[in-house]
Specification:
By secondary structure, the chain is of the alpha/beta class. The chain has nine helices and eight strands. Strands 1-2-3-4-5-6-7-8 form an eight-stranded parallel β-sheet. The longest helix is centred in the C-terminal third of the chain and has 12 residues.
Length: 196
């Protein structure tokens, strides 16, 4: 999976289409400062064949008009729902993901989420002084996993293969892909090769 840059980048929608053509599973559209119009314009640049693989982090109401089936629930919003969380997810036609920042949160996450990001696994590439929690002997216990757990944070071609040994169900990347957008597709191909 790839998480978008927070800012709009030159030719980004074209790059995302190419990533999907190279086998990208899901694209998380996370641009916190973007307006509804900016998000709509961006999605219009994505091939309609790939839109069901986009997960919206904001402006969720746009999903139905673009054929988007996936919504990402921010950690703060998930917590604010409290007892209504499970009902809100269960009664929706959408598939939900969410974000976690500790193993303790993972242990109490409702299993109605399709998957959850657990971060930062390694020292972040996109955020300075954002240290990863995973030491070399870290391993997710099966009994902690109430849903699929996707590693996020500091993942590059040198460490992506470690995620399997840590018992993650997949990987999501941000900084490694977008620090050099002109090489995004080549970087993604390298990641896929090293993950196998």
């Amino acid at each position: 999976m790839v998480v978008s840059s927070e800012l709009f980048l030159k030719d980004e929608s074209d790059i995302v289409n190419q990533l999907f053509e190279e086998g990208l599973e899901y694209y998380h559209l996370r641009k916190p400062a973007a307006s509804e119009e900016e998000i709509s314009s961006f999605i219009n640049g994505i091939s309609s064949n790939f839109r069901r693989k986009i997960s919206l982090h904001s402006h969720h109401h746009l999903a139905s008009s673009f054929g988007i089936e996936r919504l990402h629930m921010k950690e703060g919003f998930r917590i604010s729902l409290g007892e209504n969380l499970v009902e809100s997810i269960s009664n929706s036609d959408y598939k939900f993901s969410t974000s976690l920042h500790s193993v303790e949160d993972l242990k109490i996450l409702p299993n109605q989420f399709e998957y959850a990001f657990l971060s930062p696994v390694f020292d972040s590439i996109s955020k300075t002084n954002y240290e990863g929690f995973a030491k070399s002997d870290f391993k997710l216990a099966d009994e902690w996993k109430r849903t699929s757990i996707i590693g996020l944070g500091g993942i590059d071609e040198s460490n992506i293969s470690q995620l399997k040994d840590m018992n993650f169900d997949g990987a999501a990347v941000l900084g490694y892909i977008w620090r050099r957008p002109e090489l995004a597709v080549k970087s993604f191909i390298k990641l896929r090769r090293n993950a196998e």
